[in-house]
Amino acid sequence: MKIDLLSPASFDGGQPHRQYAWLREHQPVTWHDEPGGKGFWAVTRHADVWAVDRDFQTYSSEPTIMITDPLAEAGSFGPYKMMLMMDPPEHTGFRKLIRSEFTEPSARLRGERIQALAKQIVDAVADKGECDFVDEVAGEMPSYVIAELMGLPLDDGRELYKLTEIIHTAPEALPPGAGGQAVMKMFEYGSKVMAEKRARPGDDLASRLLACEVDGRRLEDMEFLLFFLLLIDAGGDTTRNLLSGGLLALMEHPDQYRWLMEDLEGRLPTAREELLRWASPVIYMRRTAKRDTELGGQKIREGDKVVMYFGSANRDPAAFERPDVLDLSRADNPHMAFGNGPHVCLGQHLARIEIDAMLREVLTRMKDFELAAPVEWLASNFISGPKAMPLRFRGA
């Protein structure tokens, strides 16, 4: 079995489940060569991924959570780090600054507005009978929600989402330096937001971030910009790619689609969790060993890259009964689409509300889906999902 978890070609059409299955059975913690780099340990079993993600004392999020870091293309940020690339207790302190905005009760308070946005998004395409589902539907919801949360114009949220797509694309699929340029454009926009919110603070997350304190001091400019990049970047990944990848899964499994539609509201919660397991939009997260240790029978050395493959963990037969079967009624579903431990996705409650709102609108108002052209997948080994998904459908 040829194993290549770096090439975007391995992820064209979805995650490489045949490679994952071979690794789980034969080499669940395996050394993977990295052209131009030192290589990394690929971790593919559910139990090992679960353990690594929780053990920040052994496996650090510093210096980065990606195998190769697109932020490095944008230059050095001195002592400043993105929150995702911190360990507790530093990570805990920064996470507290925004945690209240993303608790389950706070997310539920936004439910009515999110449902209204979902209706607005589907209103724009329902009578056309065709659309690019990623660009016109799935990508709109998280772009709008994070824009409103940050106090930005909705259309700006859409343009910022295009930059995140570039950041997540594999460097070899882009012109030289394109990833770093996208990061710098995000910073340029964030600098304008920073100036505007300092001059005219509003009731939004950007204004609150600029006013809050960590360790008795206000955020410095670069700390705010890295926070801004994180919120825009991470705010759309799971929702956008789950909606498009999830709808594709329903089209490919008409029996499951029919079962869901028999009681959409009652069956949506378990269906959503199963689609999250099935699609696993975030392919991996990297950690770096802080000391010599052992994992899956392998000796891990201090400084080694250790990469958790969530898509593989979510198909592990040791954790899931019939893991390669899409079962929207699956009750026992310990998936890790949002990670776990101290770095569990802060926006998971908001993402679930966004997903439910969009699925309600899409599945009740758009019928008889069929692909109008082949799906184009994002050329990435970090985020899994369609980049373009032209659909024909009948408005209901």
CATH architecture annotation: Orthogonal Bundle
Outline: globular
Q: Mean pLDDT score, rounded? A: 92
Radius of gyration: 20 Å
- Percent strand equals 5-15%
Number of strands: 14
Q: What's the name of the CATH homologous superfamily?
A: Cytochrome P450
Keywords: Heme, Iron, Metal-binding, Monooxygenase, Oxidoreductase
Family: Belongs to the cytochrome P450 family.
Organism: Phenylobacterium kunshanense
Protein name: Cytochrome P450
Structure, described:
This protein has 396 residues and is α+β, with helices and mostly antiparallel strands. It has one domain (8-373, 382-395): Cytochrome p450 (Orthogonal Bundle), CATH 1.10.630. The protein contains 16 helices and 14 strands. The protein has a five-stranded mixed beta sheet with strand order 1-2-10-7-3. Strands 4-14-11 form a three-stranded antiparallel beta sheet. A hairpin with a 2-residue loop joins strand 8 and strand 9 (298-300). Helix 10 (178-199) packs across helix 12. It is globular, with a radius of gyration of 20 Å. The mean pLDDT is 92. GO terms for molecular function: cholest-4-en-3-one 26-monooxygenase activity; heme binding; iron ion binding; steroid hydroxylase activity. It holds the Pfam family p450. InterPro entries: Cyt_P450, Cyt_P450_B, Cyt_P450_CS, Cyt_P450_sf. Cytochromes P450 are a group of heme-thiolate monooxygenases. They oxidize a variety of structurally unrelated compounds, including steroids, fatty acids, and xenobiotics. It comes from Phenylobacterium kunshanense.
